[in-house]
Amino acid sequence: MTALAGSELTYFPIAGRAESIRLAFKIGGIDFTDTRITFPEWKDKVKPTTPWGGLPMLKLPDGTVIAQQRAILRLISKQAGLYPVDPLAAAKVDELMDAAEDLQTKVNAAGQGLEQAEKEAKRKEACESGVVFDLVKKMDEYIAKNGSGGCSVGDKISCADLMIFTTSCGVISGMFDGVPATTFDQFKSVQAVRKAVANHPAVKAYHDTISDINPMFIKARDL
Question: Does the predicted TM-score (pTM) go above 0.85?
């Protein structure tokens, strides 16, 4: 099995697409270097070195480079005990991770290209009765059917839980204009997953160290 301790994760100084990976490292107790680059560094120095022209990017101790959020997250999660061995359970975890990706895409697309006030109104509508609401409702029903005890699949925390948590926090963090902070409030199963991840001892200890780096994300965590 590939040794992951001592790997370097490169991303921006925000939660974004790297946060679920950071949490997997922390929960798994795997030491890593959390390199957070500036946006000028990205354009001038880092982007040309990436396999696919984007971040996050993971460099393993042997020099191997892996990119793309979910590929990295699965790799870490398999060693951290956050990815099911059972193929069907693993497929369900993958299914929810893809749904979480779709969620952010739908939020971002709502009202795109409109004037500010119109965009915010469209996003609010999408979250309260439109495409975002419909997707979160489906996710909530899926978790209620397939998970338990604040876990989205089965009764053990998985990387799907981490993606649901980090994506949902990003959605209501204020990063997307017009998205109500109450977007997830009525969805009990989604909220149970969010609270379970937020209250994990390793996550809480990690968040104590970044509260001044990502204050918007930390605020959204508690909603």
Answer: yes
